[in-house]
Amino acid sequence: MTHEDQHTADPLARVLGWAGLGLGLAHIVAPKTAGRVYRRLAPTGGREFIQAMPMMGGTSGRGLRRRLMPTGGREFLYAIPSPGAGGRLRGLPMAGGRGLPRGLRRALAPTGGREFLHVIPTPGARDLLHMTPPGTGRGITGRIRTMLAPTGRREFLHVIPYPGGRGHAHGMGDHHRMGGMRRMMAPGRGMGGMTRLMSSGRMRAGRGRRGGAGGRIGALTAATGLAAAVYAAARIGRRGTITREQQGRELGERVRDLRAAVTINQPREEVYRYWRDFGHLPRFMTHLESVEVTGDGRSHWTARGPAGKSVQWDAEITEDRPGELISWRSTGRATVPNSGTVRFADAPGGRGTEVRVSLRYDPPGGKAGLALARLLGEHPEQQVRDDLRRFKQVMETGEVVRSEGSPEGTRALRQAVQRPAQPVG
Amino acid sequence: MKATCWMGRNTVEVRNVPDPGIVNARDAVVRVTSTAICGSDLHLYDGYVPTMKKGDILGHEFMGEVVEVGPQVRNLRVGDRVVVPFPIACGNCLSCQNGMYSVCENSNPNAGVAERLMGHSPAGIFGYSHMLGGYAGGQAEYARVPFADVGPIKVEDGLPDEKVLFLSDILPTGWMGAEMCDIKPGDVIAIWGAGPVGQLAAVSARLMGAERVICIDRLPYRLHHAERAGAETLNYEEVDVLEALQDMTAGRGPDACIDAVGMEAHHGNPAMYAYDRTKQATRLETDRPYALRQAILACRNGGTVSVIGVYGGFVDKFPMGAIMNRSLTLRAGQCHVQRYMRPLMDRIRHGDIDPSFVISHRMRLEDAPHAYEMFKNKENECNKVVLTT
């Protein structure tokens, strides 16, 4: 499903790219305002270093700490554990002599929403995400999810405030003093070489007028933004290729290609044999009501369609290599023309059997129907993954595993809307 | 039946709910005779574990009498006394067969939720959020036990409930915490959190041959328990823990450090505490990792940090630099209880360990709301509550 993940990256990368470009230009056009914006966003380098100090113990680093003190004082709270420092909290110059309340406020909401991205893993927001199971980037909720996605993309955000942020957040002298440290930290900040380059450029600028520095920073930010935009464009381009590759000709342009894989702790022959009897499929493919094997590689499938309507079609096996592969496709005028292949391979080192499924189908209602289905939680991608999870349960434990919260067993919709964990009664 | 239900943050109620029955062929239904409140239940009570739902039955430490078995359960009969391990594990997947029961690949029907938060899903756990399966817990009159042919251990020789109940969680958890330290002769083991798990980790570390065990907490009665378990103690509200440990080990640092605190750590400094507390309350981070941070910094170069305290999501300001630069080993895990039940049952039978020393309160199931409140606020020197039906 890697290609799906790439889809999800696109809108955000694009937004970030243009936002970065915009910020950079703003820096050139209105450096003062941009500086103010930055101060709010600045993630500060060097500041992390300060946090290490209290852990090191003593108060000896206090002077240094004060000199390094980069922003509103959030980090200062980290310095407190050195005994007694708490008492001096109010008196200490928190980057420009701001008092505690403001410092504290910043401490708690320091970086213009950057920390907000941490919200993702927590209950409320998370539940929202569950409404739309993973893997799909399109659709409104998909986009929200992309914006919130906790790792990978989030780091990307840091790149943008970085180039300019500190240049305005600190006194000019700080540039000089912090230079070495910043250089030390910069490479770790995601865009290694580029950031380092910017750091050094900024340090030179730091000795001069602010405006000058702002201009250069702006230019650099713009460059970053442009780079991000190009990156986004490149991704979009790549996505296009992938999509074209995926699309089979036989079912037309609207075709969907789904893939999923699972490792099952059973011998390959056995896993193959179970699947080969299509009558078993409804046990773990919950959208299927029944599959009747009519003989000679032919079968009759009945599935629950959207809105509770039943859909039926005939299928035939197109390829069957015992222990290795089964391919099938719908025949005649199926409502949802579809085909599938399942491959079985030994997992390395006696880890059982790797099962890889690819399904191809022409969704009713085309793209619109698909988007609607997603909004309703009927993600085809998720369905296939859930099918395989249940297949593993059936093969390994004998049946689909059920809990009080999910009495039907693994299902995307049920995971979004759980029963209380109480006996069903 | 009556069951202890989570009804929102800081609220549990004993409510009438339907009786459980057999759902899967490998289920058993157990009439609960004793059940305990775990420190990790407080994370649910305090509302810091995502995906809880009103009405969820709590409890993952319980034992009782089998009253019904599914058609595929051949090792248990109605009337057997059993202790039930808290992780639900199928016994068939590769993880289970490698003894990693708490990361069973099949027992969490809501694995998709856990995968989004943690990358891969761990096992389902009784009464411990929907992300971990949405299973009804054991602080109730009856409980359905999935994979009853794998998890529950029979108590055959009349050992009283109080001696064997903690095989369900805290004894094996403490034991595994010590085992992950890979204790060698002469080792000094420091344990953050002198609650029941920390106390049992101290007992375990001693049994494994640790030279010295040092327990760190702030509540005198807990430290007293730890002393009885054969540990030296540090009160972090009275001493600088890092300095004290340096001093006690002549600058080496403890050979291994056990974090038996987890996501709701307390910090001696009010401002520090307020910082992470506020971030946690406003969901800017899910876990408060002071104990873990300190354990990492305290550990000797090349030593091991063993994490058995429960964490739910993400921590801030994690001293990765210390781990990397000082060649530390970080080990962690929900306990693979099924792996330890039998050998620990033998030790209990032989009198090597009697975990019942942790019990401070014996109450009725109906009193669960009061018990939770008391345990949370550490009132009446509350160390461990056992509820009986």
UniProtKB/TrEMBL annotation, chain A:
Q: Return the SUPFAM superfamilies for the record.
A: Bet v1-like
Protein name listed in UniProt? Putative membrane protein
Q: Does the keyword Membrane apply?
A: yes
Q: Where is the Coenzyme Q-binding protein COQ10 START domain?
A: 264-389
Segments carrying the region annotation (Disordered) are 398-425
The alphabetical list of record keywords is: Membrane, Transmembrane, Transmembrane helix
Transmembrane stretches, start-end = 12-30, 213-234
Q: What high-level taxonomic lineage is stated for the organism?
A: Bacteria, Bacillati, Actinomycetota, Actinomycetes, Streptosporangiales
The record, for PANTHER family, names: POLYKETIDE CYCLASE/DEHYDRASE AND LIPID TRANSPORT SUPERFAMILY PROTEIN, POLYKETIDE CYCLASE_DEHYDRASE AND LIPID TRANSPORT SUPERFAMILY PROTEIN
Identify the InterPro entries for this entry: COQ10_START, ORF3, START-like_dom_sf
TrEMBL record, chain B:
Top-level taxon of origin: Bacteria
The molecular function terms in GO held by this entry are:
oxidoreductase activity; zinc ion binding
Needed co-factor(s): Zn(2+)
Q: Which Gene3D superfamilies match?
A: Medium-chain alcohol dehydrogenases, catalytic domain (3.90.180.10), NAD(P)-binding Rossmann-like Domain (3.40.50.720)
A Pfam family of the record is ADH_zinc_N
Locate the Alcohol dehydrogenase-like N-terminal domain: which residues?
Answer: 26-153
Protein name, as recorded: Threonine dehydrogenase-like Zn-dependent dehydrogenase
- Per the similarity annotation, which family is this? Belongs to the zinc-containing alcohol dehydrogenase family.
Classification via InterPro entries = ADH-like_C, ADH-like_N, ADH_Zn_CS, GroES-like_sf, NAD(P)-bd_dom_sf
What sequence ranges are listed for the domain Alcohol dehydrogenase-like C-terminal?
Answer: 196-264
Organism, per UniProt? Streptosporangium sandarakinum
Q: Which keywords does this chain's UniProt record carry?
A: Metal-binding, Oxidoreductase, Zinc
